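Name: Uracil-DNA glycosylase
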Amino acid sequence: MNVRIHESWKKELNQEFEEDYFKNLINFVKEEYTEHKCFPPGNEIFSAFDHSTFEDTKVVILGQDPYHGNGQANGLCFSVRDEVKFPPSLINIFKEIESDLKKPIPATGNLERWADQGVLLLNATLTVRAHQAGSHQKKGWEEFTDNVLKLISDKKENVVFMLWGGYAKKKARLIDDSKHLILTTGHPSPLSANRGYWFGNKHFSKTNEYLKEKGAQPIDW
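Structure predicted for Uracil-DNA glycosylase:
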Protein backbone atom coordinates (compact mmCIF):
# COMPACT_ATOMS: atom_id res chain seq x y z
CA MET A 1 0.00 0.00 0.00
CA ASN A 2 1.74 3.13 -1.24
CA VAL A 3 0.67 5.78 1.28
CA ARG A 4 1.61 9.44 1.12
CA ILE A 5 2.61 11.18 4.34
CA HIS A 6 4.76 14.29 4.80
CA GLU A 7 8.27 13.73 6.14
CA SER A 8 7.66 16.05 9.10
CA TRP A 9 4.78 13.84 10.27
CA LYS A 10 6.76 10.65 9.65
CA LYS A 11 9.42 11.98 12.00
CA GLU A 12 6.88 12.76 14.73
CA LEU A 13 4.91 9.52 14.32
CA ASN A 14 7.78 7.12 13.75
CA GLN A 15 7.53 5.68 17.25
CA GLU A 16 3.79 5.18 16.83
CA PHE A 17 4.29 3.20 13.62
CA GLU A 18 6.49 0.74 15.55
CA GLU A 19 3.85 -0.06 18.19
CA ASP A 20 2.28 -3.52 18.11
CA TYR A 21 -1.26 -2.17 17.94
CA PHE A 22 -0.36 -0.16 14.84
CA LYS A 23 1.28 -3.10 13.08
CA ASN A 24 -1.86 -5.17 13.80
CA LEU A 25 -4.02 -2.34 12.50
CA ILE A 26 -2.07 -2.10 9.24
CA ASN A 27 -2.34 -5.87 8.73
CA PHE A 28 -6.11 -5.59 9.22
CA VAL A 29 -6.36 -2.67 6.77
CA LYS A 30 -4.28 -4.45 4.11
CA GLU A 31 -6.47 -7.52 4.39
CA GLU A 32 -9.66 -5.44 4.15
CA TYR A 33 -8.42 -3.56 1.07
CA THR A 34 -7.45 -6.87 -0.55
CA GLU A 35 -10.75 -8.61 0.12
CA HIS A 36 -13.28 -5.75 0.00
CA LYS A 37 -13.86 -2.38 -1.59
CA CYS A 38 -12.72 0.20 0.97
CA PHE A 39 -12.37 3.98 1.12
CA PRO A 40 -10.45 6.20 0.76
CA PRO A 41 -8.10 4.78 -1.91
CA GLY A 42 -5.02 3.22 -0.28
CA ASN A 43 -2.65 6.01 -1.25
CA GLU A 44 -4.95 8.61 0.35
CA ILE A 45 -5.45 6.99 3.77
CA PHE A 46 -2.95 9.42 5.34
CA SER A 47 -3.83 12.44 3.16
CA ALA A 48 -4.53 14.55 6.25
CA PHE A 49 -0.84 14.19 7.11
CA ASP A 50 0.42 14.97 3.64
CA HIS A 51 -0.97 18.40 2.78
CA SER A 52 0.56 20.36 5.64
CA THR A 53 3.68 19.90 7.70
CA PHE A 54 3.54 19.12 11.41
CA GLU A 55 5.12 22.51 12.07
CA ASP A 56 2.55 24.41 9.97
CA THR A 57 -0.52 22.72 11.46
CA LYS A 58 -2.57 25.36 13.28
CA VAL A 59 -6.16 24.05 13.16
CA VAL A 60 -7.51 20.54 13.76
CA ILE A 61 -11.02 19.52 12.68
CA LEU A 62 -12.04 16.08 13.90
CA GLY A 63 -14.46 13.83 12.03
CA GLN A 64 -15.42 10.26 12.87
CA ASP A 65 -15.43 8.03 9.77
CA PRO A 66 -14.63 8.51 6.08
CA TYR A 67 -17.57 8.72 3.68
CA HIS A 68 -18.43 5.19 2.56
CA GLY A 69 -20.10 5.97 -0.80
CA ASN A 70 -18.37 5.46 -4.15
CA GLY A 71 -15.84 8.15 -5.06
CA GLN A 72 -16.55 10.44 -2.11
CA ALA A 73 -13.72 10.08 0.44
CA ASN A 74 -10.32 11.64 -0.27
CA GLY A 75 -8.66 11.10 3.11
CA LEU A 76 -9.70 14.45 4.62
CA CYS A 77 -12.63 14.59 7.05
CA PHE A 78 -15.84 16.17 5.68
CA SER A 79 -14.13 16.62 2.28
CA VAL A 80 -15.19 15.08 -1.03
CA ARG A 81 -13.55 14.91 -4.42
CA ASP A 82 -14.13 17.60 -7.03
CA GLU A 83 -17.39 17.09 -8.97
CA VAL A 84 -18.91 15.00 -6.12
CA LYS A 85 -22.27 16.16 -4.77
CA PHE A 86 -21.92 17.80 -1.34
CA PRO A 87 -22.99 15.49 1.52
CA PRO A 88 -25.51 17.08 3.94
CA SER A 89 -22.95 17.79 6.71
CA LEU A 90 -20.67 19.60 4.26
CA ILE A 91 -23.58 21.71 2.97
CA ASN A 92 -24.24 22.82 6.56
CA ILE A 93 -20.54 23.61 7.10
CA PHE A 94 -20.56 25.83 4.01
CA LYS A 95 -23.84 27.48 5.09
CA GLU A 96 -22.29 28.36 8.46
CA ILE A 97 -19.20 29.83 6.74
CA GLU A 98 -21.51 31.82 4.44
CA SER A 99 -23.39 33.33 7.40
CA ASP A 100 -20.30 33.72 9.62
CA LEU A 101 -17.85 35.15 7.10
CA LYS A 102 -20.16 36.24 4.23
CA LYS A 103 -18.29 33.92 1.87
CA PRO A 104 -20.28 32.31 -0.96
CA ILE A 105 -20.70 28.53 -1.01
CA PRO A 106 -17.80 27.17 -3.11
CA ALA A 107 -18.09 25.22 -6.34
CA THR A 108 -16.28 22.18 -4.93
CA GLY A 109 -16.47 20.25 -1.67
CA ASN A 110 -12.80 19.31 -1.92
CA LEU A 111 -11.21 20.75 1.23
CA GLU A 112 -7.59 20.27 0.14
CA ARG A 113 -7.42 24.06 -0.02
CA TRP A 114 -7.94 24.15 3.77
CA ALA A 115 -5.48 21.32 4.38
CA ASP A 116 -2.79 23.16 2.40
CA GLN A 117 -3.12 26.09 4.83
CA GLY A 118 -2.41 24.00 7.92
CA VAL A 119 -5.86 22.62 8.75
CA LEU A 120 -5.52 18.98 9.82
CA LEU A 121 -8.77 17.35 8.62
CA LEU A 122 -8.56 14.24 10.76
CA ASN A 123 -11.05 11.40 10.96
CA ALA A 124 -10.89 9.35 14.18
CA THR A 125 -11.03 6.23 11.95
CA LEU A 126 -9.10 6.61 8.71
CA THR A 127 -10.65 3.80 6.64
CA VAL A 128 -14.05 2.19 6.04
CA ARG A 129 -15.53 -0.67 4.04
CA ALA A 130 -17.72 0.50 1.15
CA HIS A 131 -21.34 1.18 2.18
CA GLN A 132 -20.71 -0.01 5.76
CA ALA A 133 -20.43 2.94 8.11
CA GLY A 134 -18.23 2.30 11.13
CA SER A 135 -16.92 -1.00 9.77
CA HIS A 136 -13.28 -0.20 10.66
CA GLN A 137 -13.94 1.26 14.09
CA LYS A 138 -12.31 -0.26 17.20
CA LYS A 139 -9.49 -1.86 15.19
CA GLY A 140 -6.75 0.51 16.37
CA TRP A 141 -7.38 3.69 14.40
CA GLU A 142 -8.85 5.48 17.41
CA GLU A 143 -5.75 4.75 19.49
CA PHE A 144 -3.60 6.16 16.70
CA THR A 145 -5.64 9.33 16.19
CA ASP A 146 -5.99 9.93 19.95
CA ASN A 147 -2.19 9.81 20.14
CA VAL A 148 -1.96 12.27 17.24
CA LEU A 149 -4.20 14.72 19.15
CA LYS A 150 -2.04 14.28 22.29
CA LEU A 151 1.14 14.79 20.24
CA ILE A 152 -0.15 18.07 18.78
CA SER A 153 -1.34 19.22 22.20
CA ASP A 154 1.96 18.37 23.90
CA LYS A 155 4.43 19.56 21.28
CA LYS A 156 2.70 22.61 19.83
CA GLU A 157 1.07 25.82 21.07
CA ASN A 158 -1.87 27.98 19.95
CA VAL A 159 -3.60 25.34 17.84
CA VAL A 160 -7.38 25.59 17.37
CA PHE A 161 -9.23 22.29 17.86
CA MET A 162 -12.76 22.22 16.40
CA LEU A 163 -14.74 19.40 18.05
CA TRP A 164 -18.20 18.97 16.52
CA GLY A 165 -20.76 16.62 18.05
CA GLY A 166 -20.73 14.31 21.06
CA TYR A 167 -18.06 11.93 19.78
CA ALA A 168 -15.55 14.67 18.97
CA LYS A 169 -16.24 16.64 22.16
CA LYS A 170 -15.05 13.68 24.26
CA LYS A 171 -11.57 14.18 22.76
CA ALA A 172 -11.19 17.49 24.60
CA ARG A 173 -9.69 15.48 27.50
CA LEU A 174 -6.62 14.81 25.30
CA ILE A 175 -5.93 18.52 24.73
CA ASP A 176 -4.29 21.05 27.04
CA ASP A 177 -6.70 23.99 26.99
CA SER A 178 -4.21 26.24 28.77
CA LYS A 179 -2.18 26.57 25.56
CA HIS A 180 -4.70 25.77 22.81
CA LEU A 181 -8.20 26.92 21.85
CA ILE A 182 -10.90 24.24 21.96
CA LEU A 183 -14.14 25.10 20.14
CA THR A 184 -17.10 22.75 20.61
CA THR A 185 -20.57 22.68 19.07
CA GLY A 186 -23.14 20.26 17.70
CA HIS A 187 -22.42 18.12 14.66
CA PRO A 188 -23.15 19.70 11.26
CA SER A 189 -25.32 16.73 10.25
CA PRO A 190 -28.96 17.66 9.48
CA LEU A 191 -30.18 15.74 12.54
CA SER A 192 -28.18 17.98 14.86
CA ALA A 193 -28.21 21.18 12.79
CA ASN A 194 -32.01 21.17 12.37
CA ARG A 195 -32.37 21.01 16.15
CA GLY A 196 -30.36 24.19 16.51
CA TYR A 197 -27.06 22.65 17.62
CA TRP A 198 -24.89 23.79 14.70
CA PHE A 199 -25.82 27.06 13.02
CA GLY A 200 -24.51 30.27 14.55
CA ASN A 201 -21.45 28.68 16.20
CA LYS A 202 -19.12 31.14 14.39
CA HIS A 203 -16.21 28.71 14.70
CA PHE A 204 -14.60 29.97 11.51
CA SER A 205 -14.42 33.65 12.50
CA LYS A 206 -13.44 32.69 16.09
CA THR A 207 -10.59 30.57 14.73
CA ASN A 208 -9.27 33.39 12.56
CA GLU A 209 -9.51 35.93 15.38
CA TYR A 210 -7.51 33.61 17.65
CA LEU A 211 -4.86 32.93 14.98
CA LYS A 212 -4.45 36.65 14.31
CA GLU A 213 -4.14 37.32 18.06
CA LYS A 214 -1.33 34.77 18.18
CA GLY A 215 0.46 36.28 15.18
CA ALA A 216 -0.49 33.46 12.78
CA GLN A 217 -1.96 33.73 9.30
CA PRO A 218 -5.76 33.28 9.36
CA ILE A 219 -7.36 30.55 7.24
CA ASP A 220 -9.00 31.45 3.93
CA TRP A 221 -12.13 29.34 4.45
